[in-house]
Specification:
The protein is about 30% helix and about 25% strand. The chain is an alpha/beta fold and about 350 residues long. It has two domains: about 10-175, Peroxisomal Thiolase, Chain A, domain 1 (3-Layer(aba) Sandwich), CATH 3.40.47; about 185-330, Thiolase/Chalcone synthase (Peroxisomal Thiolase, Chain A, domain 1). A five-stranded mixed β-sheet has the order 1-7-6-4-5, with helices on both faces. α4 (about 100-105) links the parallel β4 and β5. α3 runs parallel beside α4 (about 100-105) and α7 (about 225-245) runs parallel beside α8 (about 265-275).
Length: about 350
């Protein structure tokens, strides 16, 4: 008796959507708030402006919902056909109640179950592997992955080392079984618990609950040690990327585009240099949005969707608090429908 091998199901991105708030916070605006200037910010970060969700009701769940609706409307997707909704975020609407179920309900994904992923700036990257695994296993047909963060809700606007970096936004992608040879290929992930000493919010967790000094000392807002984060980010993003390339016998010349977390332009440049990837292949939008944490990768996909061609080789990489990091290799599944 001859056994017939069944080809594995390959997961592919089939649709992209996004949302950014209308309100723009420029470097010139920040000059009026802290001791900084436009030249200093651009030289060190590459950022000119960022979007800020000023309305209290426009929280992470709202932005994630808008990105998901944008995806569905652009691509004529019935939300009822979605099986799973994943929201990567570190700024959920509530500490206990997961944001993803709210988003699923808001968009009318009544057949889906939903949950949040938390890996800081690596959240969406980890979500790619998670979504792909659900599709490849045959368990689900449509997985909606959203990266969304309202960083303005945890930024100290009197701290010039952090307030210049972060912005708000959301991006969404839909994963389905590939109908061609293209889609998710593989990923490499890593983490190191030493990172929580260098990038964190001190109070509000079970280790340091909110107390009478939390708000006076601003311990409910994000802090980071920039130099340490920079060093670890470049090292681990480049190492993970090289491992992915080696796994598929690829060189930097084979890659069409690098889709990297938009943490800092200098980190992007240093990582690309380590990998030998030409500047024109490194996609950026940090100059307009800043660092939107879990939203940076899907916002890049949305902004450059019309540039991608079927079969393009995309190298994803990210680094986040924890520390968390990784890289993923994906071949683009479709040409945009004009």
């Amino acid at each position: 008796m001859t056994r017939t091998s069944i080809a594995p199901i390959k997961a592919a991105i089939t649709a992209v959507g996004s949302y950014v708030p209308e309100e723009v916070l420029t470097n010139q605006d920040l000059e009026q708030m802290v001791d900084t200037n436009d030249e200093w910010i651009q030289t060190r970060t590459g950022i000119r402006e960022r979007r800020i969700a000023k309305s209290p009701s426009h929280a992470t769940g709202y932005m994630a919902t808008m990105a998901a609706l944008n995806l569905c409307e652009k691509n004529n997707i019935d939300p009822k056909s979605i099986d799973l909704v994943l929201v990567a975020t570190i700024t959920p609407d509530y500490q206990v109640s997961s944001t993803a179920p709210y988003v699923a309900s808001q968009i009318g994904a009544t057949s889906a179950f939903a949950y949040d992923l938390s890996a800081a700036c690596s959240g969406f990257l980890y979500g790619i592997s998670t979504a792909a695994a659900y599709i490849s296993s045959g368990q689900y047909q449509r997985v909606l992955l959203i990266g969304a963060d309202k960083m303005s809700s945890i930024v100290d606007y009197s701290d010039r080392t952090t307030c210049i970096i972060f912005g708000d936004g959301a991006g969404a992608v839909l994963f389905e079984a590939s109908k061609n040879a293209y889609g998710f290929e593989s990923a490499v992930h890593g983490s190191n618990g030493i990172g929580r000493d260098y990038l964190n919010i001190h109070d509000g967790g079970s280790l340091h609950p909110v107390n009478e000094n939390t708000f006076k000392e601003k311990n409910h807002l994000v802090r980071q040690e920039g130099r340490t984060v920079f060093k670890y980010a470049v090292k681990h993003m480049s190492e993970a990327s090289n491992k992915v390339l080696e796994k598929h016998a690829l060189t930097h010349e084979d890659i069409n585009y690098m889709i990297a977390h938009q943490a800092n332009k200098r980190i992007l440049d240093a990582t690309a240099q380590q990998l030998g990837i030409a500047n024109e292949k490194v996609l950026t939008n940090i100059e307009r949005y800043g660092n939107t944490t879990a939203a940076t990768l899907p916002l890049l996909l949305s902004d450059y969707e019309t540039e991608f061609k079927k079969g393009d080789k995309l190298l994803f990489t990210a680094f986040g608090g924890g520390f968390t990091w990784g890289a993923a290799y994906l071949t683009w599944n479709y040409d945009i429908k004009n």
